[in-house]
Structures are given as structure tokens and as C-alpha cells.
Amino acid sequence: MNGIPRTHKAAVLHSLKQPYVVDHARPVPELLHEWEVLVKSHVIGLNPIDWKAPELAGRVIQASRSSSRIKEGDNVICISTDYRDLRKAAYQEYVVSSSFNTVRIPPSVPLQSAATLGVAFVAAALALGICMGVDFSHTADGPDLLELVQKNASSSSSSSGCYQLPDDIRAECLEGLAPGERALPGDWVAIWGGSSTSANLAVQLARLAGLRVATLVDTAKHGLRLSAHGSPLRPDLLVDSHDPDRAVAILRASLGPRLRFALDTRGRDSAAALGRALRQEEEEAPDASPVVDKDAPVTPRQSPGPASRGAPRAHLVGLTGLPKEPAGEEVVYHTVPIKLYHEAPAVGEALSAWLERLLEAGALVAPDVVAVEEGFEGINIGLDRMRRGEVSGGKAVVVLEQ
Fold it and tell me: Residues annotated as region Disordered (predicted)?
């Protein structure tokens, strides 16, 4: 196996709420499918819910037999949304990755930076592209994800060139948006979360696609950093999220009915606040002076279909939770169909190849690395620091090999 050892180091979790234990003689995972690659891990990106968001940067040791894009010796990002396959777990020296979930890293991007953005990029791209219908085809030749999924999805997995959508994401992918409801260049999207890497990538992708972005953050912690940041991370409208009711009032006074899309990266309470901002019939809170020109024209769009009752509905995407309150008739709740990335090879390949082009062109800025630990022992240290709230405004990484 090209000098690959039979065993390697891996951090193993024996029970919940316990620290990871380093196993020094874990069997090296084997490739089972022709589209898989084996990667030697160099840098691991830590995420708040790590078993659900493994990502790492490393070097390809064994290439796929079916993909010509990924070659032996390439430096790559491995983005695993296939949580049940332990061969793809990040906390080990050698990791299996599907070629269509593997992204080549250009020389201009350090491995530490590369290990911070994969999962957030996929979540943001699917939230915008599937749940809001954003077309990225004019952004570094990106994909029109909604069209790609709806064109290739099949009710039968045996259909040539097609794939079967899992039942739990089928309605989201095929029925979430009525005709005429897709987000278009010039439309506004509100994104709640300043320290979240998913919010970071969502702001960048939205602006690259021509959307206007209102970012809701704790301005005492993140306001100066975001307002001073160069495009594409700097929002069009920065709103302090410290007082949610006030934040909702500002969004209503500033944008009114022009705000039809919102993405929450924090939790159920902030998602509920965004839901209130999207429901324009409610009474506005006092003392909410508009800060954006309300007379600017609304983006023209196609006539809505029957599901939209004569007017385009608003759309709220929750990455970590949705409001307890019913959505109602004018707001649609969305959950990101993250498993599309590994269940639908065409989607995975389109997103991975697009991320390569964005990085190569310097069009996407990786989240800041704000904490660095070393070795497998550093995994527990880094996770503990995150639990204590010591990592904010960027990502923590663990360096296994320079």
C-alpha cells in the first residue's frame, strides 16, 4: 500500500462527555470504493460539534481509481458530512475521503487556513443555493445547485446518471421554493452570527452572488472587525444583536418587505427573532430609525406559483435550530440538507471543484485561525478551550504534522 503502515494513531471517544483517548495502534482505514482516496492528516479543524463536522487538511497518499481531479501528492481539504463512516473521521493520522468531497489546496493557502473552511463552506453554499435558490453560475463558474439537484434527482436510484434523494431531505430539495421565490442579485439576506464560520462563509458567498447582506452580531465583540474588513466579508448593513427586539425593529425599519431571506447560525432564539423580522404584518417596535434607503427598487422577479398565494413568501434557514412558533403562511422554515454533499456525487463534485476555483482566484477568505494546538493531545485541549468560550471570531486547529 505505497509504504502505508498497518496501524496508526487515532483519538477515540469511548463515551459521551469524556475526553478523547489516543489509540496508538488503530488499524489504518482501507479504501472500499474506486472513488475514494487516502489522506495523511496534517491539520485538523475543530468545530463546536466535532463528530458532526469533521474537516482536515493533508496530503493524498493513495489516489482514487475513478477521479482524475485528485492525484497522489496533492494537498487537500477533506470535508466529511458522512458522519456514520468512521473511516472518514478526522481525529486520526490516515483518513478516507470520497474524491467528490475532497478539495485541492492551492499553494497560496496555508494548510492551517485550509482546515478551517470546508464544513462551513458546504453548509453556507447549500443554505443559500438550495434553501434560498441562489444561482452561483456567474461566480467563478459555480453551480446552480437547485437546478442541479432537481435535474438529476430521481425517484429510483437505478436511473442512469441520477441519484435517489433521501426521504428526509427530498421535500426541502424539490418543494422548498415556489416558482418566482428564488433569491436574485440585489435581494437582501439577514445573517445572524458574527463569530460563526458558517456565517463568515455565508456572508462572502452571498455577496459574491450579488446579494445584499445584513449581518447581526454582538458589535461589542465583532463590530469593529467586521465593519473594517475588506470586501467580501464586510456586510452592507451591520446590526447589533445584543437586544434582539431592537435588532428586529432595525431590520423592519431599514428593509421592510424587501427582506425575504434570513439565515440563523446561533440557535432557536435568534432564529425566532429573524422569523419576527420576516413577518411584516406585526406591529413595529418604537424608536427604530431606518438606516437604509427604503425607496430603492425591489428586485423584479417572476410571477409566483400557487404555493406563494400571489406574493413571494419569506424564507428562514436554521443551521442549529428553528423557532418553536409555527411558520405561518408567509414564512417558510428550511433545514440545510447537508447530506446532499456526500449522498449526491454530482453535488459534492460541483461544490468541491467550485471551492478550488474560489481559493485559486483568491475570491474567498478563510476564517481567522485564533487558536493552535499540537498533536493528538491537543484535541482535548482545543475542545476544552472552545467549551469555555475562549475561542471566538475564528477557528481553532490542531497541527499533527508540519
Answer: 273-321
